[in-house]
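Record 1 of the preview.
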Amino acid sequence: MKELNNFINIQENQETLLTIYISNKKILDVIPIFEKELEKAKNINNTSKKHKICNRYYQFIKKLNDFNEETIIHSIFLINDEIFEYKLNKEEIEIIKTYNLKEIYFEMDKYFHISYLIDLFTNFEFIYTILLSKNNGKIIIINKNKNKIIDEIKINNENELQDLINTYKNEYQYKNTFIIYGESNLLDKLENNKNYIIYKGKYSYNDIYLIYQDKIDKENLELLEKKLNDLNNEKTNLDLYVFGRLKIEIKESIETYSIKELYIEKRKIDLLKKFIDNEYLNFKIIPIKSFKEGDIGDIFIKNYKGLMGIKYY
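->
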């Protein structure tokens, strides 16, 4: 899957790049879907855009027709003037089944949706949540692009809830805060604590992920502010800090295994992972996002290029 990174920086001026994955589908069932997309593309008003998209769909359909019609396809396709195919391995095919993902996904954009694909198939860091409806509880793991119900259980009171959380923390070594949400009288009896946060009402999985991510982003700003304040402390060993360019000073420190923590502007994380091998990413990455002009995240991005490494003592 690493070879997909070669397509991260490819862009076009119009939404004419096609990102597609297909899994567990017969060619015979797939071709009509893209024939329909080809017919829709013929109605595009912009002549150059229409020509480019129609030609790309045509070439893709032609490639599909080269397969035996009974073939079961499991592949990612990235399509510009050429067609790149990445064949999903057994583990990646199983991910689609396990998390009940779409068997056919396609997007037409100015860029290839590489970050989405890589996150989909490689990110297994989840938020643990409990969705309550009356006394019924669903334990659901959630991240940016995947979710899965891992258990359903009756929960009658706060003690049972706390026992459940402790069980999951011990069994799965989950150290973060649970999110408990939904519509249940039990929620009225609970208050936020170190083990869980309460949200009353109906929320989608994506809503919950964004709420949790917002919480983490704000906590990361607090950590960043403390580190930057330490720079003004005369007792601080400034040699433990690494500043500079991602591809030079930061990269060198990473590849010499000197970095303990890396504070990095969120949008630069994909770039980091593009040219640093996974074997070197054995340190804590702390993504930084600015919420408003002048906040500590904004200052960090403008004054420190959104990069700061902390070395081992």
